[in-house]
Amino acid sequence: MKKIILFCLLLCLHQVQAQKSSTQHPNIVWIVCEDISPYLGCYGNTEVKTPNLDELAHDGVRYSHAYTTAGVCAPSRSSIITGMYQTSIGTQHMRTINGLAGAKYSPVPDYSAVLPDYVKCFPEYLRQAGYYCTNNEKQDYQFEPPVTVWDENGPAASWRNRPAGKPFFAVFNFFITHESQLFMREKDSLLVDPNKLAVPPYYPNTTTVRRGLARLYTNIQIMDRQAGELINMLKADGLYDNTILFFYSDHGGALPWMKREVLERGIHIPLIVKLPDGKLAGTVVNNMVSSVDFAPTVLSLAGVQIPQYMQGNAFLGAQKVKPRKYVFAGRDRMDTEYDRVRAARDQQYEYLYNYMPEKPYYQNIEYRKSIPMMREILALRDAGKLDSFQAAWFKTKPQEELYDIEADPNQLHNLAANPAYKTKLAELREALQKWSSQVGDLGALDEKEMITKWWDGKNTAPPTDTPTIVKTSNGLTVHCTTKGASIGYRIVKGGPATKPETHTVSSWDFGGLLNPNLKNGQQRPTLPAWQVYNGQPIKLSPNDTLIVNAMRIGYKPVVVSYIGGL
Questions:
Q1: What is the C-alpha separation between 138 and 126, in angstroms, rounded?
Q2: How far, in Å, CA of 350 to CA of 411, rounded?
Q3: 345-372 pLDDT per residue, tens
Q4: Closest to 172 measured CA to CA, from 248, 239, 243
Q5: Does 365 map to a domain?
Q6: Which of 37, 274, 425, 445 to pair with 176, CA 20 to 30 A apart?
């Protein structure tokens, strides 16, 4: 009987400790979609059916005023992963890494942005705190990330691969709503009737435009189904109730004159956060939230100290701060076309400052011309068949713009010259200038000049200094003299000649919905995950090999190895 009582006490103690650990370091999942404004049923949209995300909003908190820092993916994602404004760290131009196939979309050679030496990708802090971090699979940060960011990054990355007992942070990216799917799926069947859709006044009401809207809404409905499958996986694993779950889009709408803009339709996004055990379920928060706030908020929820340099503000967790009064956004080079626009938004109004008012709103972006409705809009423009609101896209810009979003959600009427709004114009102008002064704005620099400064006048990025591995009585220590370098390491059992193990892709790839090129049961070679070096000595067996990868973001990485017996 005493043994039974002792066993029960130990079991209760174990459960209390596990619960305490879960509270201190809760599991966190991000469901990230691409290129949508808040076109969900839970946001009042009646033209698209999103039952899974509507249910998630019922179980969680829906944010009505969530905004990204850019209207296009790569600059926006650089801000999300660092907690820093893209204009502050030099990642503002779309895009910096194109590859050989995409060279025609940029007037400058490929470059990985050189971030300030103190800036890290925030999952590195989670990993140092004991989290297992996975990304499935898009990154697109405007720089090559160090190996220290993720335990797993790829089409099979999942919380299911984590060691037993480890808390996890898992990101899943859904591509189906991306701009490219407007033309790549042009001939696919539609789930939404084009003839029943309302057409915004800044578009001509034509069959092609309505089909474009229906294609976007159909893709959103497919994405909702994918999100539902992921949520069901969490439920099947018994994790849904006690996992913090984010859903958001990387920026606003995919259609022409939406994406790439810092107008409401380019930066306003859906954001839903489900907290453990039904906390705040079914509530709506109207506070201003920026995507630059996501990184510090996750660290706050995870019980990890937010670095002082981060420019975002935690809106949940123990380190939550006072709600924002304003959010800010920027637009810079888009592919081959240069522009510079900055925006400030409060609860009701949006202010824009155009640094290049001599240029039209419209940019002649080749990639976008693959969208059928884009080609039709250009043809109607050339034929003089656009009305004044639709033709405004092709006019030059004023220096300043001010819109009352509540009264004018389509931003058709610029109030900047209206004396009745003089006070609001001055307020938002001052807020924008203060923000720009506080965080800095590298958009003022010529892009080539910015790269030259980063690279010390050379034609290529500087290398990270070669790390040194020192054998001590307690193990191996690693040192790198490049300030800000992230150091990752892995131990390969049996030395470098050992064949890597294979990993079988399983059901977390959603039957190809996430990654159509990856089939269930496919074997992939794997090596041990890169670990984040924390300064402590590393124990190495005589027959094993230590591999070290050191990299400052924007510099070239360097890899060295140490064989245990040497």
A1: 19
A2: 9
A3: 999 999 999 999 999 999 999 999 999 9
A4: 248
A5: no
A6: 274
d(CA 22, CA 483): 34
Q: So which residues are the catalytic ones?
A: 73
Tell me the pTM. Answer: 0.92
Beta carbons within 8 Å of 477's beta carbon, 6+ residues apart: 469, 470, 535, 537, 538
Cβ partners under 8 Å of residue 359, min gap 6: 339, 396, 397
Query: What pLDDT does residue 501 have?
Result: 47
- Reduced to 3 states, what is the DSSP secondary structure of residue 344? strand
Which residue, of 265, 294, 327, is where some domain finishes? 327
CB atoms within 10 A of CB 382: 9
The CATH number for 317's domain is: 3.40.720.10
Residue 338 has a pLDDT of: 97
Local confidence band at 142 (pLDDT 50, 70, 90 cut-offs): very high
In contact, 259 and 71? CB cutoff 8 Å: yes
Residue 462 burial (C-beta neighbours within 10 Å; 0-12, 13-18, 19+)? middle
The two tokens of residue 309 are 């340099």
* Largest Cα span, the chain: 92
Judge whether 194 lies within some domain: yes
* pLDDT per position as a tens digit, 9-27: 444 444 433 344 456 899 9
For residues 53 and 40, the answer to whether their CB atoms sit within 8 Å is yes
Burial of residue 119 (number of CB atoms within 10 Å: 0-12, 13-18, 19+):
buried
In a domain, 553, yes or no: yes
Domain span at residue 532? 468-563
Contacts 24+ apart (CB under 8 A), 103-110: 104/336, 104/366, 105/335, 105/336, 105/366, 105/367, 106/335, 106/336, 107/333, 107/336, 107/338, 108/447, 108/448, 108/451
Structural domains in the chain (count): 2
Q: Is residue 401 part of a domain?
A: no
DSSP H/E element including 208: helix 207-236
Question: Where a domain ends, among 327, 359, 378?
Answer: 327
CA distance 51 to 55: 6
Instruction: Reduce the DSSP state of residue 126 to 3 states and report it.
Output: helix
| Measured distance CA(119)–CA(81) in Å, rounded | 10
Q: Which residue has the tokens 């939406």?
A: 258
Give per-residue pLDDT as tens, 149-184: 999 999 999 999 999 999 999 999 999 999 999 999
Residues 6+ apart with CB under 8 A from 488: 146, 147, 148, 530, 531, 532, 533, 548, 549, 550
Identify residue 136 by its one-letter amino acid code.
N
Helices and strands in the chain, H and E counts: 13, 20
Q: Say which residue the tokens 């092709």 belong to.
A: 394
Tokens 């400790």 belong to 17
Closest to 451 measured CA to CA, from 121, 143, 148: 143
d(CA 335, CA 102): 9
Q: From residue 504, how far is each of 143, 161, 493, 508, 524 by CA, in Å?
A: 30, 11, 20, 11, 6
